Here is the input.
Amino acid sequence: MSAKNLDEKHSESVETSDDFNTYEDKQLLRKVDFRLIPILTLLYLLSFLDRTNIGNAKIVGLTTDIHVPPAEYNTALALYFVAYVIFEVPANVDLLKRFDPRLWLPTLTLAWGIVSVVQGLVRNKAGLFGIWFLLGVTEAGLFPGVIYVFSRRHERSWRVAVFFGGAALAGAFGGILAHAIGKMNGVGGRKGWQWIFILEGVLTVAVSLVAYFIVPTWSHKATFLTEPEKKRLLARLGADSDAALIERFEWVYVRQALTDHLVWAYAFLFHGFAFVLYSLSLFMPSIIARLGFQSWQAQFMTVPPNTLAAISIWTTVWLSSRFDKRAPFIIGSAGVAIIGYVILLTTTTPGAQYTGVHFAAAGIYTGNALLLSWPGENVSAQTKRAVAVAMQITIGGIGAIAGVLIYRPSLQAHRFRTPHIISIGYLLFSVLVTLYLWTWMGRENKRRDLVLSQEKGDAEFLASADRQRLGDRDLCYRYVI
Here is the structure.
């Protein structure tokens, strides 16, 4: 096949992909998104609410009532992420492929909802340690499972942004909800912090039961689509990525993921951002309270920065999708977060430092929303992508463990000065990793273009099975940078 024919073949592929942007396709996409995004976003909102409400419970008496020393409170938080790391890969690589997401995701939600209710019944340090480890076990499969379900490459980033915005919204209305529930102190002989866990856990359980009837299944089984719509959706997926293929599990794809330097880079990128994401989200009420505000004020004052974070996510990811770029926006988000920490470090008035919290929240949440969709857009085949996403969350979880252990009482002098400096270091590390990914993938895209353009007469396009095995190493594959 000549170079001209190769170019024509590549051109036909592009045209085929462009043909899927018809009015009918947009209607189909809206139909799928309307069924997919609201319920999955709600599940993740509840997941983030049930893991971050401990920060609100702490400032209304949790650690005092069950006699948990401040340093061991940090240990309890770390145990959550230890469990998250241990169970991440099996939950995403094995169990998700064994079970239909329509059953698997609501069941996970039901399980952690029950665990959240039980949190309200703990009476001592051992109970808190055990229940937070169990919460990490039950929540481990949700996020990577949802990323895996968001199939089409160039539409995944926007879906992930809307979905991840649920995390910011959880922080936004979580403070209001916690303050309101905290006023139930003494009702039924229970403390206000106990009611925070119990009622928010009951809410999660109720939503999980409804989710069994709403969460969609795989595209080819979806009952809310007509047969022509299923065929069209699978054709769209097939033209864009490997998502329409029925791929058998093979260890070769696992080895591909484990030996791919880009997969490790995505994981280390989230490692840096996860440090600041979870240290800020779990300790925001405490950070604000240490600016001189009372506990009830701190609850309310978590709302504006989290709301700003949600708006920042949706605006920035819309721009990122419009320009089809990820790296510059991730670096920009890290820069905004660093500005926030610098403000926290260099100012002395509560108002100025509270402004720093806003910058930090906007940059951190936005950067995470962008980077969490990146391996899903750039890793193929399916099993390799599942391993890559699981590795990203797992190694990110290690960063989260470091974050919750560093924001400890012994380092909270001068309004957490030392932890804030370490946070800037983690963000700078993430910027370097992003630059590495940006540079390498950009050069590789150009190299593949050059190879295809210089191909002379003896090259043939690979059979689909061979291209599936090659995945993102196929010469016709282009990275989203």
In short: Residues 413-454 form the longest helix (42 residues).
